[in-house]
Write a structure and sequence with these properties.
heterodimer, A: 431 residues, alpha+beta, Rieske Iron-sulfur Protein, nine-stranded antiparallel sheet, four-stranded antiparallel sheet, B: 171 residues, Nuclear Transport Factor 2, Chain: A, 43% strand, globular
């Protein structure tokens, strides 16, 4: 498959195949770093949220000492999930089955009838199992099920240069507004991941209605191929698509002056700040299933655009089936009125009801049936990811780009998605 | 709950409100979105809060005060309707097939702006997919120029994760 990908070819059946899916769970979600929560979702000790790594249930909790814990949600006695709520605040988790009780650091602290029933049991050996590795980066909490996987900073690698722009504009970072959107799509998790890796080509067709009714400018969602558009590929296995305005314009996506006022003393380089200044939209995917969109748009053509960052996660829920999650973030310290405005614009653009996103789930869902049938496998159908290969577009590597990655001078190329699939093949090929 | 002595005038009002809600459902099921906008006041406040599963002791926190599946005013609703009228609103082209079952209509005020609660069972089908959404709606209905108009609606869904690939509909 690696040789096919070098020619820009990806098998259709990877989007709906039980064997591929099972291998993804163990070889990708069982091995790499997976996003589980944003720190602002857990502001105080005792706060917890129920999350999944692949399909495995975990509790992400801030313990009494303020330490973030990622605990396998399964009682050590009979395996029952002990966290029935999506979120809350508690010092202890008590399994309803037999009453084994754990504190929010995972320690087993209560065993009914312990003196008679378990005189020889050492509670220290029977705490909730933590994810083998947990690390945070600028508010993003990641966990990894494999103790031998290199650290998170290695996984994010050079891509931090771009993440820092999204997460570090305000010195206090970003904060999540409310709870994430969650909805079921009959499409494979990779459809979301590879699209947000930088599918700049689809906007002019799939999202043509958006600029047509004035919810974004053509610079945001018009035809690909503008002179200010770039694609960042092979950036430590991650990628991003960036649309900017001319150098003399400073949209900062569409953050208003009172929010831009927060963007100081943030430690970003002049080059990072200059990129942020000119930007109107970035999309990107952190392998495997965390994507971002940083966008300026509006809910009503009569109202000026507003900017927000959406983190989105394509949760695998079976071959050809995912649960999409989306968090809306704004720079921490934004006025309450702006937070409400940003949330409203996010809902109107990227959410289950979003005027953009409504249409994405339709076309991704329509990959599932052809991918899962007989003919996709029998005929060995290969999909075309060739744009940007030599002699397949006029796109060229960009000289003088200040950031990392292999960067192209146009978004009419699909190296961003080939980056995703190269990473995917690397992990799937390791036995 | 204390039962109010119901007058004939009250009953006529309940019936009138029911008729309004049933007609509204008919208009939406027929995808006559322009006609639907005409049933809303200019200051319509329409929202669908996100919902999470909470412990029994924290049930009052189950609906978010901050995040919504839809949070709309007249301008944003009109933009959604305008989009459906383009050739490129793929989520509704071809259109979904919907049927709204409105029941358990309760008036909580009989004078001034009418506070109305109703249950909604919403059937949605598109291609081979079929979904039911269930919700309670809290409406504020005003009488303008002798006609009922929807001024506020909060849709309290019975779902946390939405079992539908998109929400390209009005509930």
């Amino acid at each position: 498959m690696a040789a096919d990908l070098d020619r820009g070819l990806v098998p259709l059946r990877v989007y709906n195949d039980p064997d591929v899916y099972r291998a993804e769970m163990t070889r990708i979600f069982g091995r790499t770093w997976v996003f589980v929560a944003h720190e602002s979702e857990l502001p105080t000790p005792g706060d917890y949220v129920a999350r999944t790594i692949g399909e495995d249930p975990f509790i992400v909790a801030r313990d009494e000492d303020g330490v973030i814990r990622v605990l396998f949600d399964s009682c050590r006695h009979r395996g029952t999930q002990i966290c029935a709520a999506d979120k809350g605040n508690t010092s202890h988790f008590r399994c309803p089955y037999h009453g084994w009780t754990y504190n929010n650091a995972g320690a087993l602290v209560g065993i009914p009838n312990r003196k008679q029933a378990y005189p020889g049991l050492d509670p220290a050996e029977w705490g909730l199992l933590p994810a083998p590795q947990v690390e945070c980066y600028r508010g993003l909490i990641f966990a990894c099920l494999d103790p031998d996987t290199p650290p998170l900073l290695d996984h994010l690698g050079d891509y931090r240069w771009y993440l820092d722009i999204h997460l570090g504009l305000a010195p206090a970072g970003m904060e999540v507004i409310g709870d994430p959107h969650r909805w079921l799509i009959d499409a494979d998790w990779k459809s979301g991941a590879e699209n947000f890796a930088g599918d700049s080509y689809h906007t002019q067709s799939l999202h043509r209605s958006i600029p047509e009714i004035g919810l974004t400018s053509k610079a945001v969602a018009g035809s690909a191929g503008g002179s200010n558009d770039v694609h960042v590929t092979e950036c430590s296995g991650h990628s991003t698509s960036i649309r900017r305005l001319d150098p003399d314009q400073s949209p900062f996506w569409a953050y208003p002056p009172e929010v831009q006022a927060l963007f100081r003393d943030n430690g970003l380089t002049p080059e990072q700040l200059d990129l942020a200044r000119r930007s109107v939209v970035h999309t990107g995917t952190v392998f495997p299933n965390l994507s971002l969109i940083h966008l300026g748009g509006t809910d009503d053509p009569a109202k000026p655009p507003a900017a927000y960052l959406s983190l989105r996660q394509w949760q695998p829920r079976g071959p050809g089936r995912m649960e999409a999650w989306s968090w809306v973030l704004v720079p921490k310290g934004s006025p309450e009125e702006y937070k409400r405005r940003a949330l409203k614009v996010a809902v109107a653009t990227f959410s289950p009801s979003g005027n953009f996103e409504q249409d994405d789930s339709v076309v991704w869902g329509r990959v599932t049936r052809p991918a899962g049938g007989v003919f996709a496998a029998k005929a060995g159908i290969l999909l075309n990811y060739q744009m940007g290969l030599p002699d397949m577009s006029l796109t060229r590597e960009l000289d003088g780009w200040p950031g990392p990655g292999v960067v192209y001078d146009s978004n009419l190329e699909e190296g961003v998605q080939r980056t995703f699939f190269r990473h995917w093949i690397r992990m799937m090929s390791r036995g | 709950m204390a039962e109010r002595t119901v007058t004939d005038q009250d009953l006529r009002l309940v019936r009138r409100v029911e008729e309004f809600l049933f007609r509204e459902a008919e208009v939406l099921d027929a995808a006559r979105f322009g006609a639907w906008l005409d049933l809303l006041t200019d200051d319509i406040d329409y929202r669908i809060p996100t919902r999470v599963t909470r412990e029994r002791t924290a049930l009052d926190l189950r609906f978010s005060q901050a995040s919504f599946h839809m949070v709309e005013d007249r301008g944003s609703l009109a933009a959604r309707v305008d989009r459906f009228d383009t050739e490129y609103a793929w989520s509704e082209n071809p259109p979904s097939r919907t049927r709204r079952f409105v029941s358990n209509v309760r008036l909580d005020s009989f004078e001034g702006p009418l506070e109305v609660r109703s249950n909604l069972l919403f059937f949605w089908a598109r291609e081979e997919r079929q979904v039911l959404l269930s919700a309670e709606r809290h409406d504020l209905i005003r009488i303008e120029d002798d006609a009922l108009r929807l001024a506020r609606r909060v849709v309290f869904l019975d779902h946390t994760t939405l079992p539908i690939p998109n929400l390209a509909v009005f509930l």
